[in-house]
């Protein structure tokens, strides 16, 4: 089993808990406040280089198309890079997913042109953080385009894969569910460099057709929902308040962001 980097699993867990527990004082958070609270999750060990909303491009570099893209937050470290898109909409649609995916691929292509070897050796992860639950179409779009999705009603796939790699995982979840989730999730929970492979000698970016079918994506979404319920139920039965404690700390960030947005 491949293990999701701790920076990716940790940020996706915190984004899930932020969306789940940190309500704005007046309901759905203002877009700017949500952006500030979610991008603040990039301040963590392993991400020593950061870029916040309002900055165009990627650490001074442009895009392949010449479009001046803005990401809501970027954090890079020695092991991984995280690219964030933060949304606080009642009905997030698949168009927003497609736009984010285009931004990422456009910046990635230019980075590959500038330094193919260094870009190929990196590990960059696009993550979309929504304050509200989303439709199945949005879930499917994110999986199909290689974007890790964090919403309040389902544990993110990077978080679940990291949990599944622990010896204690079967205390909360049936072994058959764990095994099948790992089988279906591993091919899609990957960085840009795995989905869009850079062949340095030929200066080509290649995309594989060996990816989950529409039916397998549906099965994965069912397992994601089931494992989320099983883990939360298991924590309740054991009296664990770990998520509530972290969520309470994140709620303070949300409140501060709403005040100063």
Question: Approximately how much helix is present in the residues?
Answer: 40-55%
Distance between the termini: 42 Å
The residue-averaged pLDDT reads 90
If strands are numbered along the chain, what order do they take across the biggest sheet? 1-2-3-4-5
Order of H and E elements: HHEEEHHEHEHHHEEHH
Low-confidence runs: none
Number of strands: 7
Structural class estimated from helices and strands? alpha/beta
Which percent range describes the beta-strand content?
5-15%
Assembly classification: single chain
Task: Specify the number of helices.
Answer: 10
Short précis:
With 261 residues, the chain is an alpha/beta fold. The chain has helices at residues 6-21, 31-39, 94-114, 116-121, 136-145, 157-164, 175-185, 192-195, 214-237, 242-260, and strands spanning 49-52, 73-76, 81-87, 124-130, 148-150, 196-199, 204-207. It has a five-stranded mixed β-sheet, with helices on both faces. A two-stranded antiparallel ribbon has the order 6-7.
Description of the molecule:
It is a single chain. The protein has 261 residues and is of the alpha/beta class. Helix content is 49%, strand content 13%. It is built from ten helices and seven strands. The chain has a five-stranded mixed beta sheet, with helices on both faces. Strands 6-7 form a two-stranded antiparallel sheet. Helix 1 (6-21) packs across helix 6. The longest helix is centred in the C-terminal third of the chain and has 24 residues, at 214-237. The chain is globular and about 55 Å long. The model has no long low-confidence stretch (mean pLDDT 90).
